[in-house]
Amino acid sequence: MFLKELFNVLPRFFDANIPVEVGSQPGAGKSESVDQIVERMARRDGFPWGVAKCFIATLAPVDINGYLVPGMIQTKNEETGEIEQHRISEFTMPTWMISTEGKPMNSYRRGVVVFEEWDKGDPDTKKASAEVLLNGRAGRHALHSGIARIALVNRLQDRSGSTKNFDFIINRRGELTVTTELSGWNEWALAKQIDPLFVAFADKNPEIVFSNTLPETQMPFCTPRSFVKLSQVLPTFIDSKGKLQHDTTTTEVATGMIGVAAATKFMQWILLHNESPDFDEVIRDPEGTPVPDRPDAKLMVCYELAHKVDRRTMPRVIMYVRRYPAEFAVTFAKAATRRDYDLINVPSMAQWVQKNASLLNAIGGAR
Q: pTM for this structure?
């Protein structure tokens, strides 16, 4: 299934308290999606959900049960009536019983324990964590029935260090495999205010960002995750003219995050960006600012305008975008309203949409 379909399916497993394993290629956005699904569930229920995250690949079996430490208990001597103290050994509360907020998971009415990179745990750790995943308990520690469990894994063909699995686990939990696709990621990226340069690149080059394959040897490679991380770093490299740097430094930064081939393509994309009209130019002179000849540049400019436009600047942006072919106007309108749906209430936007059926259909599907 596509990643966006997970938002409809996964809550059903949570409500039924059935453990589930979700697999995908590396960097597909499983963890981010689970976080968003939990937020939706909390809004649905009207109270906060607890979330505990365990990075199973770095844990040992002892981490699952907790650590055995000295303790004391008090008992009453039935013959003398005196209170007596006795030394005992007891297990500390394990990480899966503590939420990311530092509270006991059982203090929440609902919640979920997320086993990150579960497939990469060593076999003994998988066995130790199996009862937690399947039944919500290990030793003396137990989750109440409102706390769901989910394991996030990569596919076996992704060369991701997956270790032996066990039939007794497979037979007792659900299994879902998700794939990434452009439209779902595009909606997420616009809502998360991902830099428009990167959104436009993914739109134009989905075979790079969503390649679904790994390099033959271990090295940085492009996934939606690594691409988004690059979007958080690269835009901070600005030259004296206010343009994105295009030099050996930024090339090395990109290569070290998304690999040689993807970085080479993206650096060419930066050159195209630096030669294209920017937002300030459009606002200053919407009628006189040139419209790029290349379709790639048109797409890039439309995403940048959609990312920066507001109620005040919308009339001038529309004056400029009207000069573009219809398909690019649709791209702008859809991206802008996905970022901020209230922009549809700007009079100039509303009038433009009412006169253009393709825009109306695009914005209707953007919400």
A: 0.72
